[in-house]
Write a structure and sequence with these properties.
alpha+beta; Translation Initiation Factor IF3; Alpha-Beta Plaits; four-stranded antiparallel beta sheet; three-stranded antiparallel beta sheet; 5 helices; 38% helix
């Protein structure tokens, strides 16, 4: 009989301790049935259109000679002349760079006999749109027999990209508001935001100008993308 009383007393103490713990920590004393927080995740896209003000080119000089030393020496002189010519046309020395040099043997059709050597040097130059045509003319007159470009860009492109980002965030908010309204929800604040990849497609158009080689900038579209998650209720 005494053992039974002790067992009942211990059980009562344990029940009381459990009840106190439930009051002190309410989340332990209720069901885990709490509704999940509602969110809306959308992507936003922004664009800014501007006019490029910079152009870059690759000018190639290729020469041939019967010997490797003759080909590379002749080519070095010709490449130096092209580099000097683009500088004289208004390109800053800091924007003129030798980007590639190559030397290759030339053989007979059956590939068994070397009959000479071809040397090639590529000079890269960055300039303004205003000077671009004159720079091309100067390079060709100096001996460049290959041209690649122009690659057009904007000197202050980062500022335009930030404007495109702002436009992308506004686009995301409009989409999220539309989704919330369609679902009968109230749009809350931003929970997370992530920047997507930016792209800069650069169209090029040629037209007439005061010099013989015409470089028209056209327009440049700078884009930005974001992913935004909003709370909703």
């Amino acid at each position: 009989m005494m053992r039974l009383r002790w067992a009942l007393l211990i059980a009562a103490v344990l029940l009381t301790a459990s009840a106190i713990a439930g009051v002190a920590q309410p989340h332990l004393g209720r069901s885990a049935d709490t509704p999940a927080t509602k969110t809306i995740t959308v992507s936003g896209h922004g664009t800014v259109t501007t006019v490029p003000d910079r152009a870059s080119f690759d000018f190639t000089v290729e020469t041939r000679a019967q010997t490797a030393t003759g080909a590379i020496a002749h080519n070095g002189d010709a490449a130096a002349a092209v580099a000097e010519a683009v500088k004289n046309a208004g390109v800053s020395p800091a924007d003129v760079q030798t980007s590639q040099i190559s030397l290759n043997p030339q053989t007979t059709q059956d590939g068994t006999t070397i009959i000479g050597y071809a040397a090639s040097t590529t000079i890269s130059a960055k300039t303004t749109i205003v000077k671009a045509g004159a720079v091309v003319d100067a390079a060709v007159k100096a001996g460049a027999n290959g041209i690649s470009g122009p690659n057009l860009s904007r000197s202050d492109e980062s500022g335009f990209y930030k404007d495109a980002l702002k436009s992308a965030v506004a686009d995301a908010k409009d989409k999220a508001a539309a989704l919330a309204a369609a679902a009968g929800l109230t749009l809350g604040g931003v929970q997370t935001i992530a920047e997507g990849g930016g792209q800069t497609p650069i169209p090029f158009a040629a037209g007439k100008a005061d010099f013989s080689t015409a470089i028209e900038p056209g327009t440049q579209t700078i884009t930005a993308d974001v992913s935004v998650t909003y709370s909703a209720s």
